[in-house]
């Protein structure tokens, strides 16, 4: 079953087209990584899917067009975590993560016990329980990044759009976060679309990879199909060796020529 379908999505800013004619189906419970060099249009494509930049073409979530959804309904089906979120600094971590429940609250806007439990669960899963009462402004970069993810998890949307979710995280927290996202899609059937710069991680977690270059789709397929040394040289100008680890997963290793 397709959870998310993009058909001919073209998007940009003030008359400048930045992403052109992207067509891709993302099956329910799968993980699509959007990769590509800086400025390729990865974040813009995610924003277009989230309905945050003007776009032409079609974005369907299930059978519904995103363009036809109101903000509240959209936030119930699509959880978007931006790369550099502007955070309401005065809020505590708990109050910030509670914002993820906003699209689910009743007419009086009061959170219930189950909303608070969901928030506590999201904080625990992201190793933030000890920071629950700290103001956001006092968090380190990696802690803030995890708080953003906790808010998106609390939102309980079926499709997660994660822009560079591991930015600023150390390798342990980056792995823990990606494992958590992987677990969500396996346990709950959550569908994931994320941009990723780390190509070894892009080989390990997603099922499919879409390579953007200059706003165009340069390649799409499984990580093994897309992540070849030739292609990475052509589109990133990078010298890399693509190795196979003992467990069969790919490692994209930078090489000095
Ligand atoms: N708000 C904006 N207004 C105008 N141009 C923008 C805006 N945001 C991004 N751009 C431009 O759109 C192009 C694509 O940017 P985008 O952030 O989508 O790329 P990216 O692939 O995510 O890059 P990176 O890997 O550096 O994060 C860039 O040339 C960028 O300068």
Topology order in helix (H) and strand (E) letters = EEEHEEHEHHHEHEHEEHHEE
Which whole number gives the mean pLDDT?
92
β-sheet strand percentage: 25-35%
- Could you estimate the helical fraction of the residues in percent? 25-40%
Largest sheet: 6 strands, mixed
Listed once per kind, the bound small molecules are: adenosine-5'-triphosphate
Indicate the CATH architecture. 3-Layer(aba) Sandwich
Pfam families: ABC_tran
Keywords: ATP-binding, Nucleotide-binding, Transport
GO molecular function, one term: ATP binding
Protein name: Iron complex transport system ATP-binding protein
Structure in words:
With 257 residues, the protein is an alpha/beta fold. The protein has a single domain, classed as P-loop containing nucleotide triphosphate hydrolases (Rossmann fold), CATH 3.40.50. The chain has nine helices and twelve strands. The chain has helices spanning 42-49, 71-77, 93-98, 113-125, 141-155, 171-188, 199-204, 223-226, 229-236, and strands spanning 2-13, 16-27, 31-35, 55-61, 64-65, 78-81, 159-162, 191-195, 208-213, 216-221, 240-244, 250-254. A six-stranded mixed sheet has the order 6-7-8-3-9-10, with helices on both faces. A four-stranded antiparallel sheet has the order 2-1-4-5, covered by helices on one side. Strand 1 (2-13) and strand 2 form a beta hairpin. Helix 4 (113-125) crosses helix 5 (141-155). The longest helix is centred in the C-terminal third of the chain and has 18 residues, at 171-188. The chain is globular and about 55 Å long. The mean pLDDT is 92. Adenosine-5'-triphosphate binds at residues 13, 18, 36, 38-44. Residues 4-239 form the ABC transporter domain. Keywords: ATP-binding, Nucleotide-binding, Transport. It comes from Kutzneria buriramensis. GO terms for molecular function: ATP binding; ATP hydrolysis activity. This is Iron complex transport system ATP-binding protein.
């Amino acid at each position: 079953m397709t959870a998310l379908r993009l058909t001919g999505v073209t998007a940009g800013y003030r008359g400048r087209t930045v992403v052109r004619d992207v067509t891709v189906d993302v099956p329910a419970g799968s993980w699509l990584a959007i990769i590509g060099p800086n400025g390729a249009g990865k974040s813009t494509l995610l924003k277009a899917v989230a309905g945050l930049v003007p776009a032409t073409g079609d974005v369907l979530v299930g059978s519904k067009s995103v363009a036809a959804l109101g903000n509240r309904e959209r936030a119930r089906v699509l959880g978007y975590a931006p790369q550099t979120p502007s955070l309401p600094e005065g809020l505590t971590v708990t109050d910030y993560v509670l914002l993820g429940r906003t699209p689910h609250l009743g007419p009086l806007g009061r959170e219930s016990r189950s909303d608070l439990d969901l928030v506590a669960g999201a904080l625990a899963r992201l190793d933030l329980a000890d920071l629950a009462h700290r103001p956001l402004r006092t968090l380190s970069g990696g802690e803030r990044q995890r708080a953003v993810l906790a808010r998106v998890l609390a939102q309980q949307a079926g499709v997660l759009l994660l822009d560079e979710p591991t930015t600023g995280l150390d390798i342990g927290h980056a792995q823990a976060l990606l494992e958590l996202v992987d677990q969500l899609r396996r346990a709950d059937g959550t569908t994931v679309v994320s941009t990723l710069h780390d190509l070894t991680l892009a080989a390990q977690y997603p099922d499919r990879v879409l390579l953007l270059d200059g706003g165009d789709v340069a390649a799409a397929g499984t990580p093994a199909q897309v992540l070849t040394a030739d292609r990475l040289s052509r589109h990133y100008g990078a010298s890399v060796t693509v190795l196979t680890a003992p467990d069969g997963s790919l490692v994209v290793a930078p090489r000095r020529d």
